[in-house]
Write a structure and sequence with these properties.
The protein has 246 residues and is of the alpha/beta class. The protein has helices at residues 9-15, 21-30, 46-51, 65-69, 108-118, 137-150, 160-163, 189-196, 200-209, 214-224; strands at 36-40, 57-62, 77-81, 94-100, 119-130, 174-176, 182-187, 230-242. Strands 1, 2, 3, 4, 5, 6, 7 and 8 form an eight-stranded mixed beta sheet that branches. Helix 1 (9-15) crosses helix 8 (189-196) and helix 6 (137-150) runs antiparallel to helix 10 (214-224). The longest helix is centred in the middle third of the chain and has 14 residues, at 137-150.
Length: 246
């Protein structure tokens, strides 16, 4: 798995969108019990923190020690530096596995083997994420141009899975259909620029070109804002399932 995010863990914690509490509550509601949840590739522990009040225990794993250092410390959350495909969890011990904005980096076959090993019978696997944000048309146009044209060739190929709404990932589970969820925020131009700077393609571009591509569109972004702030919305992508028991 690539570690694109260690270098700017604090910005990541500050600018990245969060998941709706209703979504996390819904997932807890379909889990067979509330003993143990695994937040896999937890990053800064955002989802682990949302799971913590709903489960007795949360195990949160990530390959980035740096991200975990920035994570929220809670009494019933234990952080472990581990690969998604090789956790220290015991067989059939987990009620709910959540993978937020990360499954596209995994070795699918190995990870799903691990899922099948650690999930309890009737346990739930939830792959969640979000695609490109949406706001008003003038601003969408600038963001779309930045995303597709300026950063063309700088996105990791795995990004396509997000563009395709996670519909094209392998998902060998009995699928559970969820209601639609989204997260909306009121952002200033600085919030939006802060968020764009956390994009992995921006980091790749900087490394290769020696300058920050966000600066190329900053003026256009600021002009496209209608007033001090704008509403931005992230549609939440979900693939949720249980293991097929024949």
């Amino acid at each position: 798995m690539k570690d694109n995010f260690s270098g700017h863990a604090a910005d990541y914690a500050r600018y990245r969108p969060t998941y709706p509490q209703e979504l996390i509550a819904h997932l807890a509601g379909i889990a067979p019990a509330r003993q143990l949840a695994w937040d896999c590739a937890t990053g800064n522990g955002q989802v682990a923190g949302m799971l913590a009040p709903l489960f007795n225990q949360v195990v949160a794993t990530d390959i980035s020690e740096n991200q975990l250092k920035n994570a929220m410390q809670l009494p019933n959350v234990s952080y472990r530096v581990e690969q998604a495909e090789q956790s220290s969890l015991t067989d059939q011990s987990v009620d709910l596995i959540v993978v937020a904005q990360a499954v596209h980096w995994f070795d699918f076959d190995q990870f799903y083997q691990e899922v099948k090993r650690v999930l309890k019978p009737e346990g739930v696997i939830a792959v969640i994420g979000y695609g490109l944000l949406k706001t008003h048309p003038a601003l969408d146009k600038v963001i779309e141009h930045f995303y597709s044209d300026v950063l063309d060739g700088y996105w990791d190929p795995e990004r396509n899975y997000l563009d395709e709404g996670y519909r094209t990932i392998p998902f060998p589970f009995e699928e559970i259909v969820l209601p639609k969820f989204s997260s909306s925020y009121t952002w200033t131009p600085d919030d939006l620029i802060g968020y764009l700077n956390t994009w992995s393609a921006v980091k790749h571009y900087e490394k290769q070109q020696g300058h920050n591509p966000v600066q190329q569109v900053e003026q256009q972004l600021r002009e496209a804002f209608e007033g001090e702030s704008a509403t931005v919305t992230f549609e939440i992508l979900t693939r949720v399932g249980k293991i097929h028991h024949s």
